[in-house]
From TrEMBL:
Coiled coil: none
UniProt EC number: 6.5.1.8
Binding residue positions for Mn(2+) 2: H180, H270
Catalytic activity field: a 3'-end 3'-phospho-ribonucleotide-RNA + a 5'-end dephospho-ribonucleoside-RNA + GTP = a ribonucleotidyl-ribonucleotide-RNA + GMP + diphosphate
Catalytic-site annotation from UniProt: H326
Full protein name: 3'-phosphate/5'-hydroxy nucleic acid ligase
Length: 397
């Protein structure tokens, strides 16, 4: 579908979904966002749903300003995926051992590595810039500097919630490795600190929603936020790269006889800010629950822990600010899912997938998410499908 335009105070709201299907809370958040004095455009992806601070599935283009709550607290959260030389025929009937080996290599939930991972020993890890990246930690907000050791030990860890590590098979029987995570606790603490700082600023006092407080260009607060934001985005990228390298090592050891090789890793943020130009204007584009889908750029759009995921290539649609959805999108809150579904429901909906099937992850049940096939269909003018994947192993925190 092409987008539907809904009137907004400062800019129209371009929606790649039927507005009548969007819950009232999310629609109000979008209307509030469209009132911001600095806004130049607002695009809404088909996986849109109510979010903390700002709407998940929104792309906000602003000039001379950025809203930290519109990035979210998991700065740089995103996806990585890589195609391997394995095929479905190489996989054993029982995948529980492989799942256990992944969980041993990659700490999940609040888990940490016992020692910081040395990227120099990892398979095909891009170490250029690593030392420079850590040297820039000295410039982050004083409020979080005491977290350096924890940040180092959490580098290469999964987290909880909707984060996952998966082994997947595509429609041609090729095996893929895929994972979803972000900037862990250090990103969360940086985000919360700067959201609080923005809400204190005088120019934000008259906003319709204090969660939409912004930093404006050429101020020390904006400079400080940009430093920490871009550092946290880089942390998230390295975090996924280390996990992917650890995952690849597990697979290479477990399938040693197959001499496994891997294609180039695809990686994309979906909670982040980028400096981009549209209609001759330099803008700060915030994607919260959206990926960049510039012409020819690869992206990843996952479903839930029991459904398919998609590798896509962007079509470069400027109306969406070169963006696409970041996943299926929730159709009910975590608390609602826990009330509605049971562990038995989870077991049924994840049949055939080696994964947790206990009450601790019921809020991630496929039934709590929108149908991924419909979400993909609604953005055919934003991306083309390159591969469709189905997980056979799913590791959750």
């Amino acid at each position: 579908m092409s987008y539907v335009e809904v009137p907004g105070a400062k800019v129209p709201i371009r929606m790649w979904t039927d507005p009548s299907t969007v819950d009232d809370g999310a629609m109000q958040q979008l209307r509030n966002t469209a009132t911001l004095p600095w806004i130049k455009g607002l695009a809404v992806m088909p996986d849109v749903h109510f979010g903390k601070g700002a709407t998940v599935g929104s792309v906000i283009a602003m000039q001379g300003a950025v809203c930290p709550a519109a990035v979210g607290v998991d700065i740089g959260c995103g996806m990585s995926a890589v195609k391997s030389s394995l095929t479905a025929n190489d996989l054993p009937g029982d995948l529980s051992r492989l799942r256990s080996k992944i969980e041993q290599a990659i700490p999940v939930g609040r888990g940490l590595h016992r020692e910081a991972v040395d990227p120099g020993r990892l398979y095909r890890f891009p170490t250029a810039g690593w030392d420079d990246f850590w040297s820039r930690f000295d410039g982050v907000a004083d409020a979080v500097k005491f977290r350096r050791e924890r940040a180092a030990l959490q580098m290469g860890t999964l987290g909880a919630g909707n984060h996952f590590v998966e082994l997947c098979v595509d429609t041609s029987d090729s095996v893929w490795l895929m994972l979803h995570s972000g900037s862990r606790n250090i990103g969360k603490e940086l985000a919360e600190f700067h959201i609080g700082e923005a809400q204190k600023l005088p120019h934000n006092q008259g906003l319709i929603d204090r969660d939409l407080a912004v930093f404006v260009a050429d101020t020390p607060q904006m400079a400080a936020y940009r430093h920490d934001l871009f550092w946290a985005q880089e942390y998230a990228k390295y975090n996924r790269a280390i996990m992917m390298a650890l995952f690849q090592e597990v697979v290479r050891r477990e399938f040693r006889k197959a001499r496994v090789t891997f294609d180039q890793v695809i990686s994309c943020h979906h909670n982040y800010v980028a400096e981009e130009q549209y209609e001759g204007m330099d803008m700060l584009v915030t994607r919260k629950g959206a990926i960049r889908a510039g012409s020819g750029e690869f992206g990843i759009i996952p479903g839930s822990m029991g459904t398919g995921s998609y590798i896509v290539k962007g079509l470069g649609n400027a109306a969406s600010f070169n963006s696409a959805s970041h996943g299926a999108g929730r159709k009910m809150s975590r608390s609602a899912a826990k009330k509605r579904f049971t562990a038995r429901d989870l077991e049924e909906q994840t049949r055939g997938v080696e994964c947790r099937k206990d009450s601790g992850v019921v809020d991630e049940i496929p039934g709590a998410y929108k149908p991924i096939e419909k979400v993909i269909e609604q953005q055919r003018d934003l991306v083309e499908v390159v591969a469709k994947l189905k997980q056979v192993v799913c590791v959750k925190g």
